Amino acid sequence: DLQICQHRAPTCCTKKMEESYQAAVRRERTQSIQALNFELKYMIAGHITAFQEAFESLLRFAENRTSSLFETAYRPMAKEAAEPVKELFTDISLYILGAETSVESAVLRFFDSLFPLVYSRLINPGITDLPEDYTECLRLTRQDINPFGHYSKSMAAGLSRALWASRMLSRALRLGSEVLNATEQAALSRECGRALVRMQYCPHCQGLTLIRPCVGYCLNVMRGCLASVAELDVPWREFVATLEYLAEELAASHDLELALSGIWSSVNEAVLHAQLHGPQLSATVDKVCGQPRQQEGNLSSASAVPVKEVTETQAFPVAHTSLSSRRREFINYMRRSRTFYASLAERLCDGDLVMRDSSTCWNGEDVV
């Protein structure tokens, strides 16, 4: 009653043993592919972690610089500016991680929130707490009034360009990890399971427990079993080429580091621009939003002295340097993995599975 290991000679197998063999080959194939995947998955997971840690370090550094700008140069609004600054950097972080948002909208929201503070604390420091509807009017008219000149749009455009490659690299790394996980669990067809049993276990039914499959026979069986997985060869090569391109984009000009480190400078220039054009802004705001209540003895906007130059000597964290070297190692490794899916059958037939240095081997029907 054997279905797979049928042979003219007497056999020591039963149908139940054949079923056990089929379960065994499926388990062994999954374990073999997992073992081959392990190093590649480990490298990708390690780079995801290293990239994320370095990016978060750079982000915290840039956020601290921006916060310290308000504390040292624009103290009257420092406390209230803390929340918009925090929201801006949270949005940037979410963008890198793949959230459906845009850097431009995050930057413009930040300047929308900043304008009421600049207007009431720096341009017109005598204004009492603004009512909610007046604050909302300032927020809504910020883009029309354009109090920050070209600095807000320049900052949005620069950050969008710089963070795009980082976002794409982060998404690509996660995609690579998902692909490897999916191929580990690729189901073996019924015919493949039977072919693997015939190759690995049918010799046992004749007491030939030390005979192993011939190399050519093994390759034919494995290629048949992995035909659907081997179709990933071309997309995987394209994926590795994309990783190389993104890594080069990031490394070419350090755009990410320059853009993040330049946020505080762009914000400073934007606020200075608003202060410089304070009288014109006040006249325009009065027409659009009306006049807010002011304290007696209104303080002149001149009392908020613009900071002409804020010097910063802090350097970026060491995380960036280590990330650059890790990135090079990672890309070199990924280049070598280009043929991963094309060579899967050869690698599974390597090692102890087949007879290499012997004159006899199993060809699926007999010892040859």
From TrEMBL:
Glycoprotein as a keyword? yes
Give the CC-aspect GO terms.
cell surface; extracellular region; plasma membrane; side of membrane
| Alphabetical list of InterPro entries matching this protein | Glypican, Glypican_CS
Q: How does it sit in the membrane?
A: Lipid-anchor; GPI-anchor
Q: Give the main localization category.
A: membrane
Q: Which domain of life is it from?
A: Eukaryota
Free-text function comment from the UniProt entry: Cell surface proteoglycan.
The family annotation for this protein states: Belongs to the glypican family.
What's the protein here called? GPC5 protein
